[in-house]
Design the sequence.
């Protein structure tokens, strides 16, 4: 098979005489050259003063991938070893793919690996990926249909996933609720169980390597098995994977085993729930230190997650692999292993607690439990195949959303939005003597920052700024001996405490709005999809039967 583009073997640049070869650059060969003086054909961008010699990098154009039988289209991204394109099958009786299956989809993802860029290491990893994908078939693993090669490229024809990757999905929503994250984790757990039984470790689990079949009710597909390996009893010592999701033991000199995948699973779950990884770093060295640190990973105390979810996170994110949750316990964990009946019972229990709190007048807790219950119901609707039960749950969600809206109106803060500055404070800077008190000056500045953030409705950040400033001011008030300064300080503290309370309530209201909109969106989306499914079922069955002919 010939590529569609053939590079010129001898570089020829008009106006220059190429001479001695100096070496290889990043993308081509570098030659020493001199300018050929001529009044007729000087280089168009010649400057007034030019040197005698030049170094000219001659870059070999990359041949365009061309796989007979397929029409390559949009570029989807870069994989471990090459570029991935969306492609469709070109029906022809003369040149069908050699290993075509009986039933083939409309679109494919074709990974095109430039053979000239392969080193011994990357070649070994590529062969490893092809071998593994040929021998493993699972509903949550990207399927490899075929692989071919020509003089320029190796082509891996794989399943196309229209929903992008999990990283894009999380970023588009900032973070996922527990109910939304749970089905994702359960699907990845099924893959880990499958690999565990075959004594295979993926070694590079991360959101970018987890693909979605669609945006709506997606099925997850784990991809990129380039660094996966069979784990023996002695474990492994080689460094493999992506640093951010890499288990601490990989960075040590000790052998490790497939428990590294459990650590990666923990980082992925944390990122789903909080929209970011559990490490704070500004460079690679800081990240390595964070991963190797002995300090336990903290899970925010105010996180709106269940005790089951928190327990699993803590078990997965144990730095010591011997203290990390075992595979058996992971697969049996109530967050992972659950049937829909028990999930419905849990959702009903949350809903009943919401009603109880509403009856006792605790509107805040009532609303919190109501939203959590609705989240659970929506998660069940996404996976339940019982149409009657789904219809019943959708009605429950619709009624629950209306009830939650009523509760939200009752919970709206009664505190006025504008708090007047105490008359005792004419100029805080002068009365506090801030020039001579650096700590108090910084605290006051935090409160001023809070004012600015509050003015642009960034209530969560404003609340944090007020908290920082008030903590220092309260400490200063306890030790202030001057009665006048003490009075002014307490008035200012009272002023900013009121503003902090307003911001806290406003922030909670904003979060509730976001949660409620997501529940409405998911519920409405599922309803639309169900209607489309009912209308198009017969048509899809006809189309499916037409595809069930074997490709010769």
Sequence:
């Amino acid at each position: 098979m010939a590529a569609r583009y053939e590079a010129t073997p001898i570089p020829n640049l008009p106006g220059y005489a190429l001479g001695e070869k100096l070496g290889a650059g990043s993308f081509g060969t570098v030659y020493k050259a001199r300018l050929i003086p001529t009044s007729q054909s000087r280089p168009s961008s010649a400057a007034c003063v030019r040197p005698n010699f030049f170094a000219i990098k001659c870059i070999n154009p990359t041949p365009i991938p061309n796989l007979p039988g397929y029409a390559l289209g949009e570029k989807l991204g870069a994989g471990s070893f090459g570029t991935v394109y969306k492609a469709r099958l070109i029906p022809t009786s003369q040149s069908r793919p050699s290993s075509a299956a009986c039933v083939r989809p409309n679109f494919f993802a074709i990974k095109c690996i430039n053979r000239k860029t392969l080193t011994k290491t990357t070649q070994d990893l590529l062969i490893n990926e092809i071998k593994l994908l040929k021998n493993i078939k699972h509903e949550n693993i990207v399927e490899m249909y075929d692989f071919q090669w020509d003089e320029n490229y190796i082509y891996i024809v794989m399943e196309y996933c229209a929903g992008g990757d999990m990283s894009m999905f999380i970023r588009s929503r900032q973070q996922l609720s527990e109910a939304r994250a749970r089905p994702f984790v359960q699907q990845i757990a099924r893959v880990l169980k499958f690999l565990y039984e075959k004594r295979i470790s993926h070694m590079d689990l991360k959101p970018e390597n987890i693909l979605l079949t669609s945006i709506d009710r997606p099925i997850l597909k784990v991809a990129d098995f380039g660094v996966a390996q069979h784990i023996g009893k002695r474990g492994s010592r080689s460094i493999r994977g992506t640093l951010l999701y890499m288990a601490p033991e990989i960075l040590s000199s000790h052998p490790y085993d497939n428990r590294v995948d459990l650590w990666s699973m923990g980082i992925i779950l944390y990122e789903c729930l909080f929209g970011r990884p559990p490490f704070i770093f500004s460079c690679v060295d800081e990240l390595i230190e964070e991963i190797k640190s002995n300090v336990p990973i903290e899970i925010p105390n105010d996180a709106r997650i269940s005790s089951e979810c928190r327990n699993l996170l803590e078990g997965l994110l144990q730095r010591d692999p011997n203290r990390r949750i075992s595979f058996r316990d992971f697969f049996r964990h109530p967050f992972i292993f659950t049937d829909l009946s028990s999930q419905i019972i849990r959702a009903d229990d949350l809903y009943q607690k919401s009603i109880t709190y509403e009856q006792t007048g605790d509107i805040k807790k009532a609303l919190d439990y109501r939203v959590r219950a609705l989240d659970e119901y929506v998660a069940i609707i996404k996976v339940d195949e019982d149409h009657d039960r789904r219809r019943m749950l959708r009605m429950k969600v619709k009624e629950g959303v209306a009830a939650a809206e009523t509760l939200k109106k009752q919970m709206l803060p009664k505190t006025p939005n504008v708090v007047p500055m105490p008359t005792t404070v004419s100029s805080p800077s002068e009365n506090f003597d801030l020039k001579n008190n650096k700590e108090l000056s910084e605290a006051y500045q935090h409160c001023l920052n809070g004012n600015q953030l509050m003015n642009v409705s960034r209530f969560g950040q404003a609340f944090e700024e007020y908290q920082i400033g008030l903590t220092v001011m309260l400490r200063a008030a306890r030790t202030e001996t001057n009665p006048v300064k003490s009075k002014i300080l307490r008035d200012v503290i009272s002023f900013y405490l009121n503003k902090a309370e307003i911001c806290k309530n406003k922030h909670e209201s904003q979060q509730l709005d976001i949660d409620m909109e997501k529940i409405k969106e998911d519920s409405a989306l599922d309803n639309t999809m169900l209607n489309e499914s009912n209308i198009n079922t017969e048509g899809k069955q006809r189309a499916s039967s037409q595809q069930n002919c074997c490709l010769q």
User: Anything to note?
Assistant: Residues 1-8, 232-239, 528-552 have pLDDT under 50 and may be disordered. The chain is about 45% helix and 15% strand.
